[in-house]
Amino acid sequence: MSDTQANAALLVMDMQAGIVDRYAQSSDILERTNIAIATARAASIPVIYVVVGFRPGYPEVSSRNKMFSARRQAASSMVAFSTELPQAIAPQPTDVVITKRRVSAFSGSDLEVVLRAQNISHLVLCGIATSGVVLSTLREAADKDYQLTVLADCCLDSDEEVHRVLLSKVFPRQAEVTQAKDWAATLDVEK
């Protein structure tokens, strides 16, 4: 493992079933993400899943929050928002699952406590959506002085142009943007 990966963690963000199912190309991203997860585990890099979730009745959601208040209103007529992860990328007992209450993985969660406890200083990010959790987490993590890598082929967004611009123009200002296979090649793991 390279020195830059010594204190790394892989963050698999907002890839819970209810979100993944909204995307036609979700089977491809699950397959690529599963390979990244297996690579991280083989390199003894912690895998941390971040899911968005709320208590029954959504007491954490303000009517002033445009994104989540719409979900709260819809929840009154449907099953509660699921934090279940797809079997294809299911956590192992040694993995950590963090529940957040907002878009960024840090906001309304104990992610930073977990990272500090494990002396993590380098975050490898992947998730859905590129313009949501990945962007928000990247910006906040950069402000917190984490070293950052984004696995571009393990990110997905409903707007392909926004996805492209973020990965090619915005994220490289604060992170290394790479493909999962190229990231794996930087690690000293048995294939």
Structural class label: alpha/beta
Portion in helices = 25-40%
The CATH architecture would be: 3-Layer(aba) Sandwich
Tally of alpha and pi helices: 7
Classified by CATH, the class is: Alpha Beta
User: How many β-strand runs?
Assistant: 6
- Low-pLDDT parts are 76-80
Main sheet record: 6 strands, parallel
Mean pLDDT: 86
Strand line-up in the sheet with most strands = 3-2-1-4-5-6
Q: CATH homologous superfamily? A: Isochorismatase-like
Percentage of residues in strands: 15-25%
Shape: globular
CATH topology: Rossmann fold
The rounded Rg comes to 16 Å
What does this structure look like?
Strand 5, helix 6 and strand 6 form a beta-alpha-beta unit. A 6-stranded parallel beta sheet has the order 3-2-1-4-5-6, sandwiched between helices. By secondary structure, the chain is an alpha/beta fold. The chain has 7 helices and 6 strands, in the order E-H-H-E-H-E-H-E-H-E-H-E-H. About 3% of the residues have low confidence. The chain has one domain: Rossmann fold (3-Layer(aba) Sandwich).
Map the helices and strands.
Blueprint: E1 8-13, H1 17-20, H2 26-42, E2 47-52, H3 66-75, E3 96-100, H4 111-117, E4 122-128, H5 130-143, E5 147-156, H6 160-170, E6 176-178, H7 180-185
Key features of this structure:
single chain, 191 residues, alpha/beta, Rossmann fold, 7 helices, 6 strands, 36% helix, Isochorismatase-like_sf, hydrolase, Isochorismatase-like domain-containing protein, Isochorismatase-like_hydrls
